[in-house]
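Sharing a chain and its predicted structure for anyone who wants a worked example. Both blocks are below, sequence first, tokens second.
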Amino acid sequence: MAIQNATNVAIRVDGKIAGDTIGFATSASLSVSLDLRDSTTKSSLGWQENLGGLKSWEISGDAFVDLGADPTNANDPWLSDSTTNKTVKLTPSLYDTWAAGVAVKVAFGNSTKSWYGQGIITSLSIDAGVEENATYSITIQGTGALLEA
């Protein structure tokens, strides 16, 4: 069994190959769902019956806030077991992408296995408690199919 080390799972914006990994991330999540269509009839004997409906997906994560020059260079967890510095995205460019309200190529995974598609940043929030590291949360709602590579 090859259990994935979660440290090497990342979120990329602007594509799985040409894109940049979200820098200084502390978590990453992919959620897929399937809406159900009620297909209950009088012949269902009082039991609800369903058929598959619309599929949807969402990528979310948390990271440390860095308001420096964007993009910057840092270790890229997308590259499994890498200590090589690559270009990573910081809070300012993610804000600009959110403000534009357009779909961008996004990916979840690493250089070995990933899921990718077009998504729109629907939420970007920053938390800055007293004497704590400032962090932000990001949510990207998929638009269209989620593909697997």
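Comments welcome. The beta strands are 10-13, 20-22, 25-38, 50-64, 72-75, 85-89, 104-109, 114-127, 135-142, 147-148.
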